[in-house]
């Protein structure tokens, strides 16, 4: 299955169940990612799969003002925040899912948001949430007041009819973007990171000219800026993005717009170049951004910028870079480059490292070699019994996917414990490193008879 294509924004006033729906439809992907060591995050987005289509889902709950509406000032903040949420969806999403609460009925705020969305001209799917039990016909009919066509009544909590909702959403998504006409050897890089870590400075150092506005103020790069570089080993496409800010401190719709642009930039990249600030050290949000790239199956290179600001003892200590690599242990073998975009230190190594990661991402493991490798792994460490049953691996093959994916045909996927999955991944990586690349193992049910017949 290909990379995600298309963005769906879940919009609605507070407490209608946006985050619950987000967790419901992106939960399978999240469960795979959360099994990786050291990967904890306050997620704003997820990758959903439905009817063979992968797309990005954005939970706009981060725009909700927190607190009560007991006084006028807080109520004004509530209305303003929800309006920003709607305008954000109009600006960047391909499809908007407007969620309302069928239990409490339609409110004036629901109607105002619906009006803003209608004016935006984007496809809108109306979801009436909390329909855990039969809905009063009056409330169901009331949803038509919003002028958004036939609603889909769902329960995000229990999953009732969320499949019908996904059917409607996928039907509204535009066709996947065809691959841009680029040279076969072209390397597509997304430069990502928090605000003010030096992404634009790195782009300028790589390009050798001022292509993006460089400013010490966070978030001054408001849009994606593509730059093409001609290199002897092949063309390079650089995508500079405004930083992904921590959820708790994002207070403008511009920063949310930048977040979506960063996600879209990673969608069309091969490798994400994560820029971190040596002067502040690795923070949780740096790991979150790396996790976004891993979710999308992209390669990763970490650039520790502003290295020149550290004292000599810190720069000379071998443990410094090891600490950085350990922070991104969920992507084994990730290249870490210490440098300075301002004085050009080690900037030349970035493209070479990214190309190496891209080559690792395109590695194909011969099926006989893969099966022999995994057979020996099972012999060395047989899987444990679970309720009297033991995992059996009949055969394995690497899927035809943009990012490395190994399909394991087993007697029962439920018997593949996440720790044993990690063990098998380590055995594969011991032979085929896949450095800086997420490696996904997918278990599929296969009977002994089917395996023998194939």
Summarize the structure.
The protein is α/β, with parallel strands linked by helices and 454 residues long.
What features would you highlight for this structure?
37% helix, 454 residues, 14 helices, 3 domains, Rossmann fold, six-stranded mixed sheet, 15 strands, GMP Synthetase, Chain A, domain 3, alpha/beta
Q: In CATH, what is the homologous superfamily of the largest domain?
A: P-loop containing nucleotide triphosphate hydrolases
The 3D shape can be described as globular
Order of strands across the biggest sheet? 2-3-1-4-5-6
In the CATH hierarchy, the third-tier topology of the largest domain is known as Rossmann fold
Number of strands: 15
- CATH structural architecture of the largest domain: 3-Layer(aba) Sandwich
Annotation field: number of helices: 14
Largest sheet: 6 strands, mixed
Would you tell me the overall average pLDDT? 79
Series of secondary-structure elements, N-terminal to C-terminal: EHEEHEHEHEHEHEEHEHEHHEHHEEHEH
> How many structural domains in the coordinates?
3
Describe it.
- It is a single chain.
- This protein has three domains: 7-172, P-loop containing nucleotide triphosphate hydrolases (Rossmann fold, 3-Layer(aba) Sandwich), CATH 3.40.50.300; 187-361, Rossmann fold, CATH 3.40.50.300; 367-453, K homology (KH) domain (GMP Synthetase, Chain A, domain 3), CATH 3.30.300.20.
- Helices cover 37% and strands 19% of the residues.
- The protein is built from 14 helices and 15 strands.
- The protein has helices at 18-34, 72-92, 108-120, 137-142, 162-172, 199-207, 253-267, 284-295, 312-316, 318-327, 348-361, 367-380, 418-431, 448-453; strands spanning 7-11, 45-50, 53-59, 95-101, 124-129, 152-153, 187-192, 225-229, 236-240, 271-277, 299-305, 336-338, 393-398, 405-410, 440-445.
- The longest helix has 21 residues, at 72-92.
